[in-house]
Amino acid sequence: MFSIKQLELFVHTARLGSVQRAAEHLHLSPSAAAKRLRDLERSSAVPLFEPQDRQKARLTAKGREMLALCEDLLKTLQAIEKGA
């Protein structure tokens, strides 16, 4: 099962292009962010990021699919929080 925090970090990492930037944005340590993403990838059973340069986060095809789903889910959760 995925946590909302994992999905938020995944979305921010994909949007910002690096785990470091996403960690800063979410006020996490880089090591905590990296662990959270590793746990997410382990739970998803497919690689979400290309295994390339650690400085840049490039999504796999499955990662791009998951990004779209996560963005929709997070928008829905925000609407629920606002009482829509």
Keywords:
globular, WH_DNA-bd_sf, single chain, about 0% strand, about 80 residues, 4 helices, transcription cis-regulatory region binding, Arc Repressor Mutant, subunit A, WH-like_DNA-bd_sf, HTH lysR-type domain-containing protein, mainly alpha
What report would you give on this structure?
GO terms for molecular function: DNA-binding transcription factor activity; transcription cis-regulatory region binding. Residues 2-60 form the HTH lysR-type domain. This is HTH lysR-type domain-containing protein. Belongs to the LysR transcriptional regulatory family. Keywords: DNA-binding, Transcription, Transcription regulation. With 84 residues, the chain is mostly helical. The chain has one domain: Arc Repressor Mutant, subunit A (Orthogonal Bundle), CATH 1.10.10. 67% of the residues lie in helices and 0% in strands. It contains 4 helices and no strands. The chain has helices at residues 4-16, 19-25, 30-44, 61-81. The longest helix has 21 residues, at 61-81. The termini are far apart. 21% of the residues are buried. The model has no long low-confidence stretch (mean pLDDT 93).
- What would the average pLDDT be, to the nearest integer? 93
CATH structural fold name: Arc Repressor Mutant, subunit A
CATH architecture group name: Orthogonal Bundle
Number of discrete domains: 1
The SS-based structural class is: mainly alpha
- Count the helices. How many? 4
Q: From N to C, what is the helix and strand string? A: HHHH
